[in-house]
Amino acid sequence: MKHGPDLPALIDLVSSGNRAEKRKPPKLDVTTVELGWNDNEGIAAARALIVAAFDNAQRYPEQRITHELQPATAPHYRQFLVVWHEGRMVGAGGIKSADWASDTHVLYLSAVESTLRGKGIGRALVRARLDWIFERHDHGRILVSTSKPKRYRDMGFREVCRKASPAPRLMLLEF
Known about the structure:
The relative contact order is 0.19. The protein has a single domain, classed as Aminopeptidase (3-Layer(aba) Sandwich). The N terminus is likely disordered. It has 5 helices and 7 strands; from the N terminus they run αβααβββαβαββ. The radius of gyration is 16 Å and the shape is globular. Strand 3 and strand 4 form a beta hairpin. It is an alpha+beta fold. It has a 7-stranded mixed sheet, with helices on both faces.
């Protein structure tokens, strides 16, 4: 049973003056699915994709990514959605509950294969993760740290702090 708001309706309600996002499908034929915790090949592919996309062994070492690609201990959750195109994984992104605040969900470790960026896969992956949250939770807040604030503003997020900075921005969506 779906509890949360429909994403297009949420965008219209929360956009507060921003233009509502135009829901364009990805420019490629892709499929987005939940990554199963017993899918060892899928987990290995997601790990390789994320490590390559972040390309920062100090901040995102393979050991950290491996840990994140395991289920969380109840009452918390962690889930990854992955995007497939022509039989290979081309995108991955995580969702997890914040262990420091109730009803708070975090979008994190979003990665798209470098050769396919700019084709709508990242935006579709964000939408799929938002839908995943809305289907399971009837209220709360979603946080994301991003270097692409416009993408998230178009989906109803607002910046937590509006200081001009080239650093990633913390964005919030309440529902």
